[in-house]
Specification:
- There is one protein chain.
- Helices cover 52% and strands 11% of the residues.
- With 368 residues, it is α/β, with parallel strands linked by helices.
- It folds into 3 domains: 88 residues, no CATH class; 92 residues; 89 residues, no CATH class.
- The strands form 3 sheets. A 5-stranded mixed sheet has the order 1-4-6-5-7. A 3-stranded mixed sheet has the order 8-9-10. A two-stranded antiparallel sheet has the order 2-3.
- The longest helix has 23 residues.
- Pfam families: BTB (PF00651).
- It comes from Mycena alexandri.
- This is BTB domain-containing protein.
Length: 368
């Protein structure tokens, strides 16, 4: 069965225009039940479902059904009066799938989810969040958190991570944000083409992923100076597909990250006090020794051989050096705190990485 509606918009006297005919609405093959008591239209699909399922779990549908005037008495009783929702067919079908699924079927997703499965679970997370299905949203977020670390993402499936990060931010789910960022870093190390990712991430305003991707792009960026000695003209290679504005951000970041390293070389991070170190000793001995060791660590050959734009790589090497420290007057419980201090610094820099790519203006003399 199908429903076909034609709308006519009238203008001034003697003038009438007709909008295009809407696509035919057809009964969904899986979720149009003869004994259903409510009809919903998403896109060109009609779903006839059961109110009691839509009403459970403190959803918005429950409020709509119980609040006087929340919906027209005849609305949703027939195909012609179906409740129109703005969701895609796939998204609303995902909602109905999870509403009608049996508990063993849902339980299985907590242990084994493929990239294809993740696409549907993300749809569930997005739409249950929209309609306030509290318990089902919690279940879907748990599945996503469990699945993301187990999937080896590729260029093709990279957008799934972007969607996971978006829903994590919407739900303030820091655990999911952390695993999504870790998976994104692994994707960047796998050698994918970065320019298309940068363009997509900027379009979708995923700034956390965008900063990490720009950072990875710095390693592929090659600057070749041309012209007579002293010329400011440079040619940039390894950045095909990026705009001049994006190239300007990369050039600005090279300077900014190098400047940050020089600043950090003279300003060690705060050393936390060990559990058994008294405050007076920590200030007079441990911090003093840490302040002396830090510049030496930053100037170690194994640190300086790493490209200056790879600030995180350099600090990771410093962390390894700090972890191997065994001598000195520093209290034994404060020595492990050196690693903690560097780890905290790395986390802070990673969190604020986007600041290094906020180029104030285009760079002169750039030839992409």
């Amino acid at each position: 069965m199908s429903v076909n509606r034609r709308k006519r918009a009238r203008g001034g006297a003697g003038d009438s225009t007709e909008t295009p005919i809407e696509p035919e609405a057809t009964h969904d093959a899986d979720y149009y039940f003869d004994d259903g008591d409510f009809v919903i239209r998403a896109g060109n699909a009609l779903f006839k479902v059961h109110k009691f399922l839509l009403s459970r779990d403190s959803s918005m549908f429950k409020d709509m059904f119980v609040i006087p005037g929340g919906t027209d008495a005849a609305n949703g009783l027939t195909d012609e009066t179906a409740l129109l929702v703005s969701d895609t067919v796939a998204a609303f079908r995902a909602l109905l799938w999870v509403l009608y699924a049996l508990p063993p079927e849902l339980q299985a997703y907590l242990t084994n989810v493929t990239a294809r499965d993740l696409d549907r679970i993300l749809l569930v997370a997005e739409i249950t969040n929209k309609y306030h299905f509290t318990t089902l949203e919690a279940w879907s977020m748990q599945v996503v958190r469990s699945a993301v670390p187990k999937i080896r993402f590729t260029q093709t499936t990279s957008l799934l991570l972007g969607r996971a990060m978006t829903i994590a931010e919407r739900c303030s789910d820091t655990a999911l944000s952390d695993v999504a960022l870790t998976a994104w870093e692994a994707l960047l190390r796998s050698g994918v083409n970065l320019a298309p990712l940068i363009n997509i991430l900027e379009r979708d305003q995923l700034t956390c992923f965008s900063a990490l991707t720009y950072y990875a792009q710095l390693s592929a960026m090659k600057i070749v100076r041309s012209g007579p000695p002293g010329s400011r003209v440079v040619t940039i290679a390894g950045c095909d597909g990026l705009s001049e504005t994006q190239l300007a951000r990369l050039l600005f970041a090279r300077w900014s990250l190098d400047s940050e390293f020089l600043h950090l070389s003279k300003n060690p991070p705060t050393l936390p006090r060990g559990a058994e170190c008294i405050a007076a000793n920590h200030s007079a001995v441990c911090i003093r020794e840490w302040n002396k060791l830090w510049p030496d660590y930053m100037a170690t050959k194994s640190v300086l051989v790493i490209d200056s734009v790879d600030l995180l790589g350099r600090l990771n090497e410093v962390q390894k050096i700090a972890a191997s420290h065994r001598r000195g007057q520093m209290h034994s419980t404060c020595r492990p705190m050196m690693v903690v201090a560097v780890s905290t610094l790395i986390a802070t820099i990673k969190r604020n990485l986007g600041d290094h790519f906020d180029s104030p203006a285009a760079v002169d003399g750039v030839t992409p």
